[in-house]
Amino acid sequence: MEHALVTGATGTVGSLLVRDLADRGVRVRALLRSPERAAAALPQGVEAVRGDVIDLASVRSAVKGCDTVFHTAGLPEQWLADPDIFEQVNVNGTRHLVEAALTEGVATFVYTSTIDVFDRVPGVPFDESRTLEERPLGSAYERSKQKADLLVAKAVERGLPARIVHPSAVYGPGPATATAMNLVLLRLARNQIPVLPPGGMPVVFTEDVSQGHLLAAEAPIGSRWILSDCYLTMTAIAELVHTLVPTSKVPRTMPTTVAATLAAAGEVVARVIRRPPLLAAGELYFLRSHSLPDSSRARSRLGWHTTSVQEGLSRTLRHFGVLR
Question: Looking at the 3D structure of the chain, how many domains does it have?
């Protein structure tokens, strides 16, 4: 790997991947909608090029001359006023990267997918062996990521040297608090969550996700890799935050029926006022799905390892100024 393009280079995962690649001496090019605003956040020597994944011409220009592509860009939100944007960015944007990479003959293509593409039963551990394939399910976000994942997988048959990574809920230091998990942590620390939704989520520290991408780049073409540390209930997350920030409270959990009613009513109102609901139906679906991704394959075959939740939470809260 000598010259790598990173999409989503200002995101929580992409920004650390840019840093780690640069630290390895790799020439890095970052595809950015606003290079001027992002310049200060990029490591010295990183080439910032203007473009957008939904613009095929700019994607082709960015891929040209690179031997490796890390496609981390995407919309992670569970609700948007216009759900068609998920299709434009997550699906069409991925299609543009795939076609440009095939045209330019890149040697390595690493796609940041999600655990939502796997066929699973609530409360039962699952691995990389069973994808949903032609049966997209869940929220508009989840369906778009499932379609994009299938697009990349099928492109392998056309010669795309793709490896696919599947992070669970990402948290950790980054240029913004954008991840849902980070927002939960900060709001809990500041006592801004009066009541918890039911359920929980599998989580993974952002720096571990970056390392997972680098390891996956050396793995066999067509391989999939789940990157997940552990499953935490919302109450467990609140309790961990409380151990680090004693002034924070552990809110009670609302009944499932109340949460479902709140999510349904909130989405009706959100469509009218064009602002996200307090609890999106997609978020509640994810929290109640009790997903248990098994990352043992990445640990045993890639040598991937994870940061303890206690350390990861501490570093995250310190990064965002909650802890000193």
Answer: 1
